[in-house]
Amino acid sequence: MSERLEDIAAAMVADGKGILAADESSGTIKKRFDVIGVESTADSRRDYRELLFRSTDAMKNCISGVILYDETIRQKAADGTPLVDLIKAAGAIPGIKVDAGAKAIPGYPGDTVTEGLDGLRERLAEYYKIGARFAKWRAVIDIDTAKNVPSRYTIDANTQALARYAALCQEAGIVPIVEPEVLMDGAHDIDTCYDVTRATLVKLYDALYDARVKLEGTVLKPNMVIAGKKSGQKNTPEEIAEKTLRLFRETVPVAVPGIAFLSGGQSDEEATANLNAMNAVGPHPWKLTFSYGRALQAAPQKAWSGKAENVAAAQAAFAHRARMNGLAASGKWQQ
Ligand code: 13P
Predict the structure, then answer these.
(1) Which of 113, 144, 181, 252 could form a disulfide bond with 149, CB atoms 3.0-4.6 angstroms apart?
(2) Cβ(272)–Cβ(333) under 8 Å?
(3) DSSP H or E run through 169
(4) pLDDT score recorded for residue 2
(5) What is the pLDDT of residue 42?
(6) Could you tell me the EC number(s) of this protein (predicted)?
(7) Which residues line ligand 1 (CB under 6 A)?
(8) From the CA of 19, how far away is ligand 1's center (Å)?
(9) Distance 179 CA to ligand 1 centre (A)
(10) Active-site residue among 24, 179, 181, 270?
(11) 262: nearest Cα among 295, 236, 234
(12) Longest dimension (CA), the chain
């Protein structure tokens, strides 16, 4: 496989394929395992992720790359094969989450900035040796209009950090997934999400230009334009698609090869339907696909529930969601 950044980025958003976000931190995966009554240990985390990466048909046909957590990229399958090798054998690209999480900003209650730049050059060099060819950094922008959240300051701090991360990745031969996530947890309406996401993307591409990041060798991982969960509003896939596409046409340069959405707390089927609605009205100047965590994994986690005898059922559940999202990435999904 080519090592050129633009070729790796193009492969990450290949037709009908998307990215599996399996990079939950140890804290987050524990929360997911608590729901299915599984103790989170290095072995249970390995067993679970191994079953996903061994879902051969789904991985080969629908998954272009897998985002891993530091522990997982170093782990071996039960038979001693490195998990990274399982991913490569399925024709997918290993990737790595490199940020150190969102931290509170002094003086700005409710705002956060994602940390992790210290020592990043050295960590990227090591991840490259282990096999990572792309990375992920997630900035978190919450919305709480009553509290003036997000501030302009948090958008600046987060987009500057994303740009510095992206430049370091490219120096190391690694494609940066640039993820500015405007959360859908609040009570805001869809137009507020539009405005905040717009302000964020404008600043983001400004910062990426300043940092001399080559956009052809990046992938954007954004939220969709959608009302907050506590708003009581329910948007149709067509409305979400129309507003999201309008915003991207305004803000995302055509040099960016692809946009791979996060699911952000949407249900499995909503995440599929919304992506499909966008691709049903193409063509667009960029590929539009998925980089889902929860919307790909909730079903297999439930089916598995930590039991070896459920592995085949969990793999079938994962394969189904991967197939549905693969179809949505081509605008060919039907309810
Ligand atoms: P969700 O699809 O569960 O939002 O996770 C994707 C992700 O990687 C967030 O950083």
Answers:
(1) 144
(2) yes
(3) helix 152-171
(4) 84
(5) 98
(6) 4.1.2.13
(7) 21, 138, 179, 262-264, 292-295
(8) 10
(9) 10
(10) 179
(11) 295
(12) 54
Q: Strands, DSSP E only, in 60-172?
A: 63-68, 93-97, 102-104, 112-114, 134-141
Distances from the Cα of 88 to the Cα of 56, 273, 306, 316, angstroms: 11, 29, 25, 20
> Residue 171: phi, psi to the nearest 5?
-60, -35
Q: What is the pLDDT of residue 115?
A: 98
CB 335 within 8 A of CB 304: no
221 in active site = yes
Q: Are 236 and 268 contacting, i.e. CB atoms less than 8 angstroms apart?
A: no
Angle formed by the axes of helices 42-53 and 26-35, to 10°?
80
Query: Separation of 298 CA from ligand 1 center, angstroms?
Result: 12
Catalytic position from the list 221, 243, 270, 287? 221
Predicted pLDDT of residue 206:
98
For this structure, is 88 an active site residue?
no
Q: Taking the chain (335 residues) in consecutive chunks of 10 residues, what is each chunk's mean pLDDT?
A: 93 98 97 98 98 97 98 98 98 98 98 98 98 98 97 98 99 98 98 98 98 98 98 97 98 98 97 98 97 98 98 98 98 94
Residue of 25, 32, 184, 262 to mutate, ligand 1, most atoms within 8 A of C-beta? 262
Please report the sign of the dihedral spanned by the C-alpha atoms of residue 297, residue 257, residue 221, residue 137.
positive
* The amino acid at 130: I
Q: Distance from the CA of 191 to the center of ligand 1, in angstroms?
A: 22
Q: At residue 219, what are phi and psi to the nearest 5 degrees? A: -130, 135
Closest residue (by CA) to atom 9 of ligand 1? 262
How is residue 311 written in tokens? Answer: 């592995």
Please state the pTM of the whole predicted model. 0.98
Please tell me the residue having the least CA distance from ligand 1 atom 5.
Answer: 293
Residue 42, token pair as written in the block: 């290095």
Å from CA of 299 to ligand 1 middle: 15
pLDDT on residue 292: 98
**Of all atoms in ligand 1, which is nearest to the CA of residue 294?**
3
Distance CA 203, CA 192 (A): 17
Contact 71, 45 (CB under 8 A): yes
Whole-angstrom distance, CA of residue 111 vs CA of residue 222? 18
